[in-house]
Amino acid sequence: MENIQMTVAKELLAIKAVFLRPEEPFVWASGIKSPIYCDNRLILTAPAARDIVEKALAETIRREYPDCEVLMGTSTAGIPHAAIVGHLLGLPMGYVRSGSKDHGRENRIEGRLEKGQKVVVIEDLISTGGSVLEVVEALRQAGAEVLGIASIFTYGMKKGLDRMAAANVRNVSLSNFDAIAKVAAEEGYIKPEDVARLIAFRDNPSDESWIK
């Protein structure tokens, strides 16, 4: 597992899906200053990295969720990954909208889903966990048995971990913040002394003392 964490971290950094700027922080929509910005949509435009990620997701589901019957992607970033992994595994897939449509059948869940089916949610990125847990709740309300989440990257923030635990939801990520920080320092994206600053941000995003 550690090998795939490092491999995926290297790929995300190489294709610039993950940017690290501890000296010039990004500002999130919430106003929080962050040394990291992650855009996993870029995986889709990098065929070699995409191949590694999708095969790793498929293997993760085989290993961690062998009873999976349906894959459900989060809208919109999880949809293409769910489709590709569904193809690799020969499993049906669908996706969950952020809200119900205001026309037609007013679906929130797209694709066939029967009550009692065992579902794995495919997500590209988990920070505080709010959006993916809304997807899990929608699936549960529809009668699905959600086995858990398979995601590409997680920040591992305490708020997200606590939310997952409270909702009794399991997440397995291909890579994580610690792996990104380690690989970034080893390969010269950041200075070795910046690792502690990155971890300080992850552990308490509202405390900006890591910037100084």
Radius of gyration: 17 Å
Task: Estimate the mean pLDDT confidence.
Answer: 94
Percentage of residues assigned to helices:
25-40%
Strand content: 15-25%
Indicate the structural class.
alpha/beta
Indicate the low-confidence ranges by residue numbers. none
Biggest sheet, open or closed, and with what strands and sense? 6 strands, mixed
Tell me the distance between the termini. Answer: 34 Å
Please give the number of β-strands.
10
* Mass-distribution shape: globular
Placed side by side, the strands forming the largest sheet appear as 7-6-5-8-9-10
Succession of helices and strands: HEEEEHEHEEEHEHEHH
Number of helices: 7
Describe the structure.
With 212 residues, this protein is an alpha/beta fold. Helices cover 40% and strands 22% of the residues. The protein is built from seven helices and ten strands. The protein has helices spanning 2-14, 47-64, 78-89, 130-141, 158-166, 177-186, 194-203, and strands spanning 18-20, 26-27, 33-34, 36-38, 70-74, 93-96, 109-110, 118-126, 145-154, 171-176. Helix 1 runs antiparallel to helix 2, helix 1 (2-14) crosses helix 6 (177-186) and helix 2 (47-64) packs across helix 3. The radius of gyration is 17 Å and the shape is globular. The model has no long low-confidence stretch (mean pLDDT 94).
